[in-house]
Amino acid sequence: MDTITFDEGLIKHVGQCGWGQLRIVLLASLFQVANALAFVVPVFLFKDPLASRSWECVEGAGPAQTACSSAWQSGDAAAFCSLEPTAWRWSNQGKHARDNDRLNS
């Protein structure tokens, strides 16, 4: 009994992949570019972590806490970017926090 591999069976019954098949695959893939952009673009355009206050200052004392509080009140991007990484953290606010509260109750 002679066994053939998947690739050999594909070539035997369908044929090798030529320029025609490659052109169809590329054309079908181009239609997905619009879908990909429709999902990716809003993520980067409409969610502003500074404006939505999805971060909070870490409790502490000293100049880092003062700078963090000042950046929180002003909402200034330059002030936020100059903060020490240990002075702030992402907070669980918004929709996800409401969902977690609903699930845990």
Walk me through the structure.
The radius of gyration is 27 Å and the shape is elongated. The chain is 59% helix and 6% strand. It has a two-stranded antiparallel sheet. The mean pLDDT is 79. The chain has 5 helices and 2 strands. The chain is mainly α and 105 residues long.
- How much strand content do the residues show? 5-15%
Distance between the termini: 64 Å
What is the helix content? 55-70%
Shape: elongated
Mean pLDDT: 79
* Biggest sheet record: 2 strands, antiparallel
Strand order of the largest sheet: 1-2
Task: Enumerate how many helices there are, as a single number.
Answer: 5
Oligomer: single chain
Which runs of at least 5 residues are low in confidence (pLDDT < 50)? none
Helix/strand/pairing class, anyone?
Answer: mainly alpha
DSSP, total strands: 2
Spell out the helices and strands N to C: HHEHHEH
Gyration radius, in Å = 27 Å
Q: Any key phrases for this structure?
A:
105 residues, mainly alpha
Write the layout of secondary structure elements.
Blueprint: H1 6-13, H2 19-45, E1 55-57, H3 63-74, H4 77-81, E2 88-90, H5 95-104
Provide a brief overview of the structure.
This protein is about 60% helix and about 5% strand.
